[in-house]
Amino acid sequence: MTQPLSTPPQLDRSVALFLDFDGTLSPLQDDPDAVFLEPGMDTVLARLSSILDGAVAILSGRDLSDLSKRVPQSIWRFGNHGLRAASPGTPAGEVAAPAPADLLADMMAIVTAYEGVRLEEKGPVLAVHYRAAPDRGAMLTEKLGDVIKGYTDYSLQSGKMVLEAKPSGANKGVCLRRAMETEPFAGRTPVMIGDDRTDEDAFDMARQLGGWAVKVGPGETQAGYRLESHRDVAAFLKQALETS
Question: pLDDT of 2-47, one tens digit each?
Fold first, then answer.
């Protein structure tokens, strides 16, 4: 049963704000390359960053280079589930080291057997998207899980119509904790807003550090608050600007 969670409190100037991208700041799409911020949201994010003295970050599973094409470079960006980072005004930089070649080959052999399923390389993270073939989820989970067992530093994490093979360091909770130990985030109250299972680690960490979290959309969650869609997230952030 989905938890009945309340609307989050207003943001104030003491918070450090961490935001997922897909499904949180933008609607989910069958084609991830077609996803961009809603018109005007780049300005909203830039203004919030200014008000919060730079303590606003996009924390995404997307590759940092790809993420940086879709959000303002005037704010912090953490890509690849936190494996790569770029500070405001800084380009994405060098491409992250790839996943092991044998793992890539093993996963590709599975993916190519199913129409509508595709594999995305995000540095060391490998994402298998099956939104165009939703009935393949259970079978892909089983087959990819068997492959991952042969790679001790990797685990398989499921999300919304995606399965990701991630090295141990690719964790949004770990990323949030490390960010909170540095400027401009240190000393603030962490707030994480996200929609997917990959955000749950960051929800938990934000709460451990005395902050709070917001789940976007339906589903069981560790977050204490809920917003229904990316449109509600946009309205919530715009309201923060009006009351700041």
Answer: 566 888 999 999 999 999 999 999 998 777 778 889 899 999 999 9
Residue whose pair of structure tokens reads 């490998």 in the numeric block: 126
Helices and strands: H and E segment counts in the chain: 7, 11
**Positions marked catalytic:** 20
Global pTM value: 0.88
Q: Quick one: CATH architecture of 15-95+171-243?
A: 3-Layer(aba) Sandwich (3.40)
- Residue 126: phi, psi to the nearest 5? -115, 125
- 163: helix, strand or coil: strand
Which superfamily does CATH assign the domain made up of 101-167 to? Trehalose-6-phosphate phosphatase related protein; domain 2 (3.30.70.1020)
DSSP structure string for 21-89 = SBTTTB---SSGGG--PPTTHHHHHHHHHHHTTT-EEEE-SS-HHHHHTTS-TTSEEEEGGGTEEE-TT
